[in-house]
Amino acid sequence: MARSRSAAELRRTIPALMGVHGENQSDLGDAIGLTQGQISRKLAGQAEITLADCDAIADHYGITTAQLLGSKRTAVAKSLAAKEKASGRGEDPAADVG
Question: What is the DSSP letter of 4?
Fold first, then answer.
């Protein structure tokens, strides 16, 4: 199986996202419809991470697929920002006044 730098970076980004969100492989798998074993094989490079997987993972973490496929630092930062916004900590209450 060919290994690209992009695929290797993606296999580092996904565990970083899981870590900052307090999730494990089972949690991610449950969220996107895969088993823990499937997640494990994908992260180990034994199975391909598909574009559909990327779309589902990005959606789960509140980021775009492009952000997921970009740098690990950007993906984690954008995901944490999305989580804060969803919890209300990142929103400006005055923005809803209108």
Answer: -
CA distances from 28 to 89, 90, 93, 96 (A): 24, 24, 31, 33
Q: Render pLDDT for 63-96 as a digit per residue (tens, 0 to 9).
A: 999 999 999 999 999 999 999 998 886 554 444 4
User: What pTM value is reported for the model?
Assistant: 0.84
Domain 5-81 part of CATH 2.30.40.10 = no
* Amino acid in the structure at residue 47: A
Residues 42 and 87: their CA atoms lie apart, in Å, by 30
Contact between residue 35 and residue 24 where contact means Cβ atoms under 8 Å apart: no
Measured in whole angstroms, the distance separating CA 1 from the mean position of its chain's CA atoms is 23
CB count, 10 Å around CB of 29?
18
CB 12 within 8 A of CB 70: no
Residue with tokens 């449950």: 30
